[in-house]
Each structure stands twice: as structure tokens, then as C-alpha cells.
């Protein structure tokens, strides 16, 4: 059985999915026709149910529930992993007069946008660009501020950009839960046997990666965007952890909490209350 799969080219995804996509483990009869796209592109594709399995932002889950269920394996959650709110200049974010500030964000459907909207509801002047263009947009004056994700956490200081706040810290202080950044979803029309097989294969792929992580694979290195190996390894170490193997109770609770926050900001999606997770 061949399934379509969308993941990002970021090291955390290629690290997790390498073994199952490149014949390094038993995939239990499953084959994968995969594409590599940035997460916001995958979010938009998932809105239309374009792929059988996809990486998505957890912030997009309410909008894609008619098409998908959330798997337990393959996601990115944790503490100290949140998006950073940055600027070229020091800005007093404690001020109540933030309405005239412009911010560039990595996609309308991203968890970063949802977290930013929770913390700074009065900032409405928003520009959306691919995540790897945000630092330059702030440096070039396209926007006053930006929200960065992924490996930009490790590069913004080299460009003399200033961290105004860590949106993940804001989430953790309010909820006490890990930050649910991105997860893996599969078609809700698949039966439970298939959904659990997909989840099991992803977990086996990650277990293989953990067992062989002394050297980064060519699949990881060749798909990383202008990243040296030290940054790739930092990226994997930050975003791949025990929650990537299994959401568990705390992970599922964090995703539910993010959905509650989403419903306070946007209307409930068509379809009403639907099962979120695989059984």
C-alpha cells in the first residue's frame, strides 16, 4: 500500500522519517510517496485533505479536523522550544500601545501565529512569509518585529537581532504544559488498524534514528537549508525528544489546551466536536 506523505526539510523531520523513507526498517508493507515542503505549505495542503499523512502545525489542527486525526508519534513538543519574538531594535513590549507595530510571522496557520495572537492580541499589523525569510525581513525594515522558529533560534543573535520575549515561556508559565509545535496527522477515513500501523512505523523509524544518531545521515544533511552540521544537531536535539516517540498524557493535554486557545481566537471549524487522536 502506497501512501502520500508530506514532511518539512527541517532536520527534526528528516531525522525522524529517514529510516522509513529510505528502506532502513520494516515498514509493514507500507510504501510512501513523499514530498518536502515548509510547514505552512503543508498546513494549507491539509486544509484540503491533499495528503494521506502530513506534518502540520498543531495550531492548524482545529481547521483540519474534518480530514485528519492526530498521531502520537513524530511530533515536536517540549519545554524551551517555543517561537521567539525578535526585533532589530529594543521595543518595550510591556507598553499598552503596540497597535502600530508590524510583525512578520511564519504563516497564518502556524502554532507560532496562534501563540503570538494569545500573547499580543492588540498587534494586528501582520505579514506572513516563509520562516527562513523572517530574519532578513526584520533586518531590511519590512516589519518592526518578527517571530522566528526552527533553526533561526540559533542564528538571530549572529545577525544582531534582539529577543523581545520567548512565546514558549509565555505558554509554559500560563499552562505548565509542554509547547505543542508540530505534529503528524493521517486521514480520519483510515481504519484504526491502518492508523496504528502508520503510527507504529513512524515510531520505529525514530527509534532507529536514535540508535544511529552518532552520525547525521545524508538524507538529513542534503535537505537542510544552508545549515552547518552543528546547527543541524542542535536543531534535532531541541525538537526531537520523548514526545516525538509518543505524545502521552501530557502531550495530548497540551494539544487540547492549544485547541481551546484557538477556539477563543477563531470560530470553531466546520464539523463540530470530532475525535482528535487515534485510538
Descriptive notes:
This protein is α/β, with parallel strands linked by helices and 279 residues long. It folds into two domains: 2-78 and 178-265, Periplasmic binding protein-like II (D-Maltodextrin-Binding Protein, domain 2), CATH 3.40.190.10; 84-175, D-Maltodextrin-Binding Protein, domain 2, CATH 3.40.190. It is 38% helix and 19% strand. The longest helix is centred in the last third of the chain and has 20 residues, at 192-211.
Return the domain count: 2
Basic shape: globular
Percentage of residues assigned to helices: 25-40%
Provide mean pLDDT, rounded: 91
Q: Give the H and E element order.
A: EHEHEHEEEEHEHEEHEHHHHH
By CATH's scheme, which homologous superfamily of the largest domain applies? Periplasmic binding protein-like II
Topology-level CATH name of the largest domain: D-Maltodextrin-Binding Protein, domain 2
Q: What is the count of β-strands? A: 11
Low-pLDDT runs of 5+ residues are none
Percentage of residues in DSSP E strands: 15-25%
CATH class of the largest domain: Alpha Beta
Q: Please count the helical segments.
A: 11
Structural topology:
Blueprint: E1 2-7, H1 11-21, E2 31-36, H2 39-47, E3 53-57, H3 61-64, E4 68-70, E5 76-78, E6 84-87, E7 102-105, H4 111-119, E8 125-128, H5 134-139, E9 145-148, E10 162-166, H6 167-175, E11 179-187, H7 192-211, H8 218-223, H9 229-239, H10 242-245, H11 248-265
Parallel strand pairs: 1-2, 1-3, 7-8, 7-9
Antiparallel strand pairs: 3-11, 4-11, 5-11, 6-9, 6-10
Amino acid at each position: 500500500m502506497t501512501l502520500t506523505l508530506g514532511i518539512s526539510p527541517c532536520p527534526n523531520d528528516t531525522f525522524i522519517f529517514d529510516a522509513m523513507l529510505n528502506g532502513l526498517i520494516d515498514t509493514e508493507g507500507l510504501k510512501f510517496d513523499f514530498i518536502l515542503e515548509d510547514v505552512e505549505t503543508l498546513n494549507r495542503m491539509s486544509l484540503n485533505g491533499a495528503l494521506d499523512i502530513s506534518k502540520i502545525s498543531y495550531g492548524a489542527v482545529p481547521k483540519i479536523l474534518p480530514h485528519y486525526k492526530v498521531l502520537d508519534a513524530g511530533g515536536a513538543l517540549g519545554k524551551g522550544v517555543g517561537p521567539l519574538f525578535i526585533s532589530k531594535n529594543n521595543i518595550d513590549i510591556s507598553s499598552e500601545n503596540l497597535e502600530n507595530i508590524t510583525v512578520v510571522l511564519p504563516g497564518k496557520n502556524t502554532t507560532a501565529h496562534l501563540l503570538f495572537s494569545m500573547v499580543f492580541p492588540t498587534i494586528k499589523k501582520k505579514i506572513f512569509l516563509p520562516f527562513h525569510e523572517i530574519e532578513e525581513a526584520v533586518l531590511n525594515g519590512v516589519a518592526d518585529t518578527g517571530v522566528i522558529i526552527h533553526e533561526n533560534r540559533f542564528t538571530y543573535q549572529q545577525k544582531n537581532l534582539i529577543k523581545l520575549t520567548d512565546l514558549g515561556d509565555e505558554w509554559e508559565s500560563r499552562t505548565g504544559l509542554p509547547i505543542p509545535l508540530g505534529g503528524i496527522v493521517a486521514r480520519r477515513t483510515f481504519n484504526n488498524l491502518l492508523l496504528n500501523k502508520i503510527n507504529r512505523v513512524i515510531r520505529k523509524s525514530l527509534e532507529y534514528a536514535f540508535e544511529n544518531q552518532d552520525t547525521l545521515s545524508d538524507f538529513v544533511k542534503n535537505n537542510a537549508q544552508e545549515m552547518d552540521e552543528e546547527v543541524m544537531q542542535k536543531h534535532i536535539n531541541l525538537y526531537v525528544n520523548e514526545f516525538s516517540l509518543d505524545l502521552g498524557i501530557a502531550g495530548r493535554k497540551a494539544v487540547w489546551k492549544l485547541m481551546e486557545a484557538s477556539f477563543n481566537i477563531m470560530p470553531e471549524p466546520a464539523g463540530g466536536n470530532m475525535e482528535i487522536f487515534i485510538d
